[in-house]
Amino acid sequence: MKDQKKRNDIILAVVMILVAAAGFLWYSLSKEEGGAVMLIQNGEEVQSFSLNDEVEYQIDTEDGKYNLLVIQGGKAFIKEASCPDQICVNHRPVSNVGETIVCLPNEIVVKVVETMSKPEIDMVI
Amino acid sequence: MRHHTKKLAVLGLLTAIALILSYLEALLPPIFVAVPGIKMGLPNIAIIFVLYRFGMKEAAAVSLVRLAAVALLFGNAMTLIYSLAGASLSLCLMFLLKKTNLFSMVGVSIVGGVSHNLGQILVAMWLMETAEIGYYMIVLAVTGTIAGVLIGVAGTFVLGYLKRLNI
Question: N or C: which end of chain B has fewer CB within 10 A?
């Protein structure tokens, strides 16, 4: 009975790893270079930026919190943030479609998308 | 009566241990900075011990008191939602899996570790309305499994030792 349980434990662990491996395979096969990042605040899309530009944009929330979003060399990352855990700041730069940087305390999501959702203003006359 | 008092004292002690382990875990540097939320789940040693030694009701009580204390001491209402979701999904699945009697404490603890992450990710997906957060689950399934094995082995030792001490 004890050996039976031990065997079941091992099967369970292997199945978990296999599911993760399948998920990873599916994720890496379906990944593609993104063209823009979308900024989502409290579940609402507020703004998007092209990954081809060099951008430094400070996201301010109503209660005085902030995240500093930087786009450099086709990758987006958070350079500075007011949150206590700094998880978003430590997150590696993102550039593939679907990749996200999440700041839970400030309720901010930076998400890589294929193209800009709003037409870019390329000239103001 | 004597028995009841002893049980109460032991549960109080284990709640304190779970709380200290939560604090200890928060002090440790992040294991892998690219993916947030990777934790050993140290408090689960205490929770899984209570589940095996006393039962579901007692484990839920210890878990709830720990979560409330952690939220009051180091967190806020927001972090409480996440930890509550992770802890309740984790405890319910561990309880069901233990009932099947098909797995040892290690298997139960693996499911506990992975489902703790799953509960938090599901809440994050729901609150942030961003399905892509689910990608984190790929890495968290692996780290949750590894952490679950370690916690399960540790919990097996703890259960054995404390049984010998008649606790």
Answer: N
Label the pairing between strands A44-50 and A55-60: unpaired
pTM, two decimal places = 0.77
Rounded-to-integer distance, Cα B18 and Cα B93, Å = 19
Q: Tens digits of per-residue pLDDT, B33-45? A: 556 667 888 999 9
The three-point CA angle B90-B95-B99 to 5° equals 150
Residue with tokens 């294991």: B31
Q: Name which residue leads in pLDDT, B37 or B136.
A: B136
Three-state DSSP state, A47: strand
Q: CB distance from B132 to chain A under 8 Å?
A: yes
Report pLDDT for A124. Answer: 59
The segments of chain A whose pLDDT lies below 50 read none
Q: How far apart are CA B114 and CA B131, in angstroms?
A: 18
- Distance from the Cα of B126 to chain A's closest Cα (Å) equals 9
Show residues of chain B in contact with A87, CB under 8 Å: 30, 33, 36-37
Beta-carbon count within 10 A of B159 CB: 16
Structure-token pair, residue A54: 């060099």
